[in-house]
Design goal:
CATH topology: Rossmann fold
Structural class: alpha/beta
Largest sheet: 5 strands, parallel
Radius of gyration: 16 Å
Order of helices and strands: EHEHHHEHEHHEH
Strand content: 15-25%
Bound molecules: adenosine-5'-diphosphate
Number of domains: 1
Strand order of the largest sheet: 2-3-1-4-5
Shape: globular
Helix content: 40-55%
Oligomer: single chain
């Protein structure tokens, strides 16, 4: 794909329970931004289809889906949205939540998107993270949030696989936000990091 055809993107990075989804949904309401959560994209696949079954075989154990498959599913999803007229790549910047999650995905994504800003939601307190995830499991139908062992595993996978993603990006693109604040304060900080980095007005 030639450079001019790549999508513009903002990344929301952070561990499970850091609030990427909460923030992404709101930021994605801005006229020229579209929120895309990789977990939601996977959960939207028919669980009886081959890829849907494959996704569940990983997610219910707290494992990551393989990189090539993840990027393929992501790309296909964006192309569908473009065909449906929901995304106009000339106008929209994608707000990516949950992708890339490995250094290999960073490389694969380079063929698809140009990253304009990386917002890192930092939540150091592991017990507070677990409490958030357990709370979420009670409110939503998330089999991967229901079991403490699976949650612990997802946090470990995050530490091992996803934390290095932060360092894979140029420091000039990176903004750090304290995610251990009330959601509105996090939103204020996230929005502040994006002003001036997204084309047109946000
Ligand atoms: P979390 O709230 O833990 O960040 P998500 O909803 O983002 O969870 O993702 C749920 C599951 O979907 C993950 O545990 C993983 O199995 C799979 N998944 C989501 N995004 C990716 C990705 N970029 N690469 C590989 N697997 C992914």
């Amino acid at each position: 794909m030639p450079g001019a055809d790549k999508y513009s993107a903002i990344l929301l990075l952070g561990g499970p329970g850091s609030g990427k989804g909460t923030q992404g949904v709101i930021i994605g309401q801005m006229p020229n931004l579209v929120h895309l959560a990789m977990g939601d994209i996977f959960r939207g696949i028919d669980p009886n289809a081959e890829i849907g079954k494959e996704f569940l075989s990983y997610s219910t154990k707290g494992h990551l889906v393989p990189d090539e498959l993840t990027i393929r599913v992501f790309r296909h999803h964006v192309e569908e949205k473009i065909r449906a007229g929901e995304i106009d790549p000339a106008y929209h910047t994608l707000v990516l939540d949950g992708i890339p999650r490995t250094v290999e995905q960073v490389k694969l994504l380079e063929g698809v998107a140009v990253v304009k800003r990386v917002v890192y939601l930092i939540m150091e307190d592991r017990e507070a993270l677990i409490a958030r995830l357990v709370g979420r499991a009670k409110k939503s139908d998330r089999p991967d949030d229901a079991d403490r062992a699976v949650i612990e595993n997802r946090i470990d996978v995050y530490e091992r696989e996803t934390r290095p993603v932060v360092d894979a990006y140029n420091k000039k693109l990176l903004a750090r936000v304290n995610a251990d604040q009330p959601p509105l304060a996090v939103l204020r900080d996230v929005a502040g990091c994006l002003v001036g980095y997204v084309s047109a007005s946000i």
